[in-house]
Design a protein that fits this description.
This protein is an alpha+beta fold. It is about 30% helix and about 20% strand. The longest helix has 12 residues, at about 15-30.
Length: about 120
């Protein structure tokens, strides 16, 4: 298991509070609606896997050092946000076969939608 402290060490800015709460909530048990979705809590290699997915799809790596890949579903899509001191950053989604990531919504709204038991795929 990855700890919040380990994740925080990767970034110069503090992780958003909403994300830290979500991380703690999911530390012991993944929400049932996220079956098949890897979370940063249990898979510290998500960003590496995201870069590999981009390479496999012939897409230039658009992820920056400040981007936190926090969810990946079945190895073909992932969600990320920039850790730049904003407590409610925008969440972006990349799916295999697409050329660029798509804006989803702000992090607070995104995590609220997940807690409402929606699947994170195309619904959120």
């Amino acid at each position: 298991m990855t700890t919040l402290k380990q994740v925080q060490k990767e970034f110069k800015e503090r992780l958003p509070e909403t994300f830290r709460q979500f991380f703690r909530l999911c530390y012991w048990e993944k929400p049932p609606n996220l079956v098949g979705t890897d979370l940063l809590n249990s898979e510290s290699e998500l960003k590496t896997w995201a870069v590999e997915l981009l390479e496999e799809n012939g897409i230039e790596n658009f992820l920056s050092e400040t981007d936190c890949v926090f969810m990946m579903h079945q190895g073909y899509q992932f969600w990320y946000f920039a850790v730049e001191g904003n407590d409610d950053p925008d969440v972006f989604h990349y799916m295999e076969g697409e050329i660029t990531p798509k804006f989803k919504m702000d992090l607070n709204s995104f995590l609220k939608e997940i807690k409402k038991e929606k699947r994170p795929h195309n619904n959120v």
